[in-house]
Each structure stands twice: as structure tokens, then as C-alpha cells.
Amino acid sequence: MTETTHRQSPHTGDGDRSPEYRLAQNSLQGLRQDLFHDPFAYRPLGPRPTTGPLLRRLPGRMRTAAERLPHAVVGAIALLTLLIGAVSGSEPGGDARALLTGLLCALPVLATLTRPVGAFWLSIAVSPVTALLNGGGSDWPWMPGAFVSHLTVLVVVALRTRPRTAVWMWVVTAAYALLSDIFIGGSYYYTNGGPMLITSAFALLVVCLWHVRHTAQQEVTAQQTVTAQERSRRTLLEERTTIARELHDVVAHHMSVVAIQAEAAPYRVENPPEELERAFVTIRENAVAALTELRRILGVVRAEDYEAPDAPQPTLADLDALLVNVRDAGLTVEKVVTGAVRELPQGVELSAYRIVQEALSNSLRHAPGASARVEIGYVLGGLGVRVVNGPMPEPSLVKPSPGAGHGITGMRERVAMLDGGMTAGPTDDGGYEVAVFLPVTVVNEGDA
To answer: From the CA atom positions of the chain, what is the Rg in Å?
Structure first.
């Protein structure tokens, strides 16, 4: 028969402790945190919220006064404890000890307005002092004034803290009552530890139930807020989907018709000129490009989690193709590039391209027949873009098209997104100018 001996390490981690030990340890940590950690910290009682259904209907001056109603109630109870303490001594109201007893009873109640946990410890300390000052009394360990004072302190502190703190205060009060009865209570005719514990238990139970109800109301309100936000978000998505559907049905249909008619138009004319064929080809290409952009934008409008296609976005390298397209539409435009051409961040390149595109579109729409000039300046701190068109010739066979003004707004939004600057306005000769500066952060080689 073999005997095996297991030697247990003297150092046991918390993971090896029993559940009862961990529960006791957590309880002591809660006691230390609630009642012993900085108990006299300054925590003033704030004004009462006036957003309730009743207080909200009060006039302005009464509503302002109602904000200080809790302070007035505490002050009134403090005055009451002062009177009770002063008239319940061995010589009620007749000597300095009676007045001192009343002041000691009122002090913890007033302290709940600024230092709630400290007021509880102050009430515990004041209770035996008031009993010793009135040695001929028959109440122990709480004189009548101290009884009302301590009960008020328990309720007010429990209202200002959390239910766990209320439980710990009741446990400490019970321990104080028990120790007082064992060591000192024998010389008194009557001990009121039992009535204090029963009365305070019921009062603190009501306060804890109020805390639970208040917390439940806050959670319900928060859940209702989240539900309302989700409902609003769902309604917004539905509206966006409806708008996208309508936009697609109207615009896409007409753009498709334009593309088909532009492709079929040269075949309806016998021996059409080369310029006419090229013009219809340009119209068809623009219609197809517009349809592609429309479908991409509608995808963004239809769904929040829409992922844009991996098609490359236009950059300043594609500017020449844009200018060729604009020239085919009848706008005389020249491009001037200054500075050392270099690759810029994709957001800057795309924004610059879109700004030039929108500015030239505005020139075609508002000043048909005019000439335009596009200036791209590469500088050390960023990129400068300037698009200026001359006045519309008089007389002009093509009338300007009215616009809603969203183009300039869109340009400003793009520039603001990149922390740039933009100016737009008419020129002295009757034309229009758009000047933009897009900053680009310079990365030094040593920082890379």
C-alpha cells in the first residue's frame, strides 16, 4: 500500500479561493468604496429638475423656486431636529447643554447637502455625545432629536447615493446599536435600537424601491429614444429609397432615350457631315457616362451599407479628356498648368477634377458661346485651381439655361471637406470666375 502526500502551497491565488471567500472580499471592497473612500468629499446637492409633468406647468419664478425645494425640505427638517433636541434634554430648553444638543442634532442633517457620506458618520458620532450630554434621559443610544436626525440622514444619503450604500449604512447602524446596548445600555431604562432598525429598514426599503423604479424608468426612456431613432432612421431610408426609385425612373429613362436617339440620328440623314456625326457621338457618350454616374449615386442613396464599385475615380490626368468633351459641346477652353506637376492625394485630385467639371458645365449652361480658361497651379502647400469664362457673346443663338445654384454649393462643400478656400463671383468684363485652393500636407523624408 502506497501513501501519497500532497503538499499545498502556502500562497493561494484568488482563483483558488472559495466562492464564499470571494463574496466576502467583494462585500468588504464595496463597504470600503461606499463609506470609507473619501467620505467627506464635497458633493453639493444640485437643483431639482423641473422637466416633470407638474413642475413644467409652473410659471417661471415658481419653477425656479421649485428647483431648490429639496434644499428647503432638508433645512426645515434640520430646524425640526434642532427644536426636538433642545426640548428633550434633562432640562428642556433651559440650559446651554440643551441648545448644544439641538445644534448637534441639526448639524448632520445640514451636512447631507454637501457631504452626504460624511453626514452619516457625523450622525453616528453625534448620537453618543447627545446621550452623554443628557445623562438623565431615558433613551439610548439615540435621544429623540438624534433619532430624527439619524433617520433623516439615512434617507437623504440613500436618496443621493445608490441602494448598496443604503444597505451598508443600515448594517453599520445595526452594529452601532448592538455594541451600544451591550457595553453601555445597561444603565438606561430603555433602548431604542430596535425601533431605529425597524423604522430605518422600512424607510430605506422604500428608497431602494424608488431607486429601482427610477433606474427602470431611465432604461425605458433610453430604450424608447433608441427605438425612436431607429424608427426615424428606417423612415429616412425608406424615403431615400423612394426618391432613388423615382429619380431612376424619370432621369434614367430620358437619358436612355437621348443615348438611343443620338446613336440613331446620323442614319436618318443622308450623307451627314462629319461634324454632325461627331456631335451625336459626343451626345451619346455623355448620356452613357451620365447613366453610369446616376446608377452609382443611386446606389449610395438606396442603401447605407452600399459599397462603391472599384472603378477608378477621375483625376487631373483625365482633365484633357474632359476638355475635349467640352470643346465638342461648343465651349472654347484652354488649359494652363504652372508649377511642377506631381501626384497628389486621391481626394484632392478627385475634388479638383469635379470642381473644374462643374465650373465648365456652368459656363456651358449660363454663358453659351463664351470662352473659358482653366488654370492649374502646383505650389508647395497645395493645389490652386482657377476657372474663368468670358461674357456671353451678343447676339447669341443659344439662350442660357437657368440653374438651381447647387453647383456652387457642391464646390464649396468639397473645398470645405479638404479645409481649403474658395471664391466665386462675376468678373469685371461680365464673365464669371471660380478660384479654389486645396491644401496638401507636405511629408518630409525624415518623417516617413
So the answer is: 41
